[in-house]
Amino acid sequence: MGAFILRRLISSIPVLLGILAVTFFLARAIPGDPCTAIYGERATPELCAAFAARNGLDRSVPEQFAVYIGNVLTGNLGDSIRYSVSVTSLMAERLPVTIELAMAALVFAVLLGIPLGIISAYYRNSAIDVGTMIGANVGVSMPVFWLGLMLAYIFGVILKDTPFALPPSGRLSPGFQAIPFYEAWGLVAQGQDASQLLIFFSRLNILNSILTLNGALFADALQHLILPAVAVGTIPMAIIARMTRSSVLETLNQDYVRTARSKGLRELHVVIGHAVRNALLPVVTIIGLNFGLLISGAVLTETIFSLAGVGRTLVDGITARDYTLVQGFTVVIAVAFVVINLFTDIIYSYLDPRIRLG
Fold first, then answer.
1. Is 210 exposed, middle or buried (0-12, 13-18, 19+ CB in 10 A)?
2. Cα 184 to Cα 175: distance, rounded to the nearest angstrom
């Protein structure tokens, strides 16, 4: 297992370099330049010349790429042209928003999609099966921006001042002050700045509330997370349900399932222990791919629910021709895909002992 993980990590290095190179050169191939995008009509030739010299844009593109690769290898992702802060600081601030949303959406999709798929397959061609598949098709067909607006309108406007009301925007209620866990634990001395890693984990509100045993923070963060998680997780949930149904239907007709039934095993054990476990391999693949896509940023969902995450940041960076910002976030998203695919392969070996990764 260790050798397999090491091989996968080594083989991912050329992939990451290729993604970085393509992103680097394509970003500069887009018409326009950062100076004009940021300053607009105020962009004079003198101002843009000084701007390019200050940000290293006056060098040739290959030279810029060589300098950037050298900085990346030392852990320096550069400074954002648009925000004039380090890309690492922006990641520590905005990446947790998308990660928390992606994980919540994936939990919603898996906890609802897999049971619906199993039930639909077990009661094949029944009213339950037809109703479940109709719901799955509707879920796939609903645009994320429409569903998000409808959820915000229903739970934020129509059901306002009722026990079913939910916050339609933001991550926390206005005025809510969350104490970072590193301050509660005394990990940072008075007057000192916390590291970007500590800031990153403290920005995960659910995790921060657990580490600080803050029930009020947990409840408030969870309420704000429900609507965007449902909006962005509905399509993955429908896909997972359909894939689970198809895969379980195939395994229920296998000889080993009939043998398990003939041995007198309980039906629940036959379905869950034999049919479902062997049917989960393609489902795990779909879950991994969807989680990677969610990490890459749900732009429309973050915009509708006023969440400053990866999606909105990347759009702002592309609009402003913020090369450093786009490259930095692209590298992180690519690494996330590599790690998720590696984790998916490891789960394969657990679900199917015939698969050997070592």
1. middle
2. 19
Q: Are the C-beta atoms of 105 and 342 separated by less than 8 Å?
A: no
Give SS3 for 288.
Answer: helix
Structure token digits, residue 266 = 């309980």
pLDDT string in tens for the chain (358-residue length): 677 777 777 888 888 888 888 888 887 887 777 888 777 777 788 888 888 888 888 888 888 888 888 888 887 888 888 888 888 888 888 889 989 999 999 999 999 999 999 999 988 888 988 998 888 888 888 888 888 899 999 998 899 888 889 998 888 888 888 888 888 888 887 667 788 888 889 999 999 999 999 999 999 999 999 999 999 999 999 999 999 999 999 888 888 888 888 888 888 888 888 888 888 888 888 888 888 778 776 777 888 888 888 888 888 888 888 888 888 888 888 888 888 888 887 777 777 766 665 5
Contact between 357 and 1 (Cβ < 8 Å): yes
- DSSP string over 35-70: HHHHHGGG--HHHHHHHHHHTTTTS-HHHHHHHHHH
Beta-carbon neighbour count of residue 62 at 10 Å? 10
In angstroms, rounded to a whole number, what is the distance separating the alpha carbons of residues 16 and 24? 12
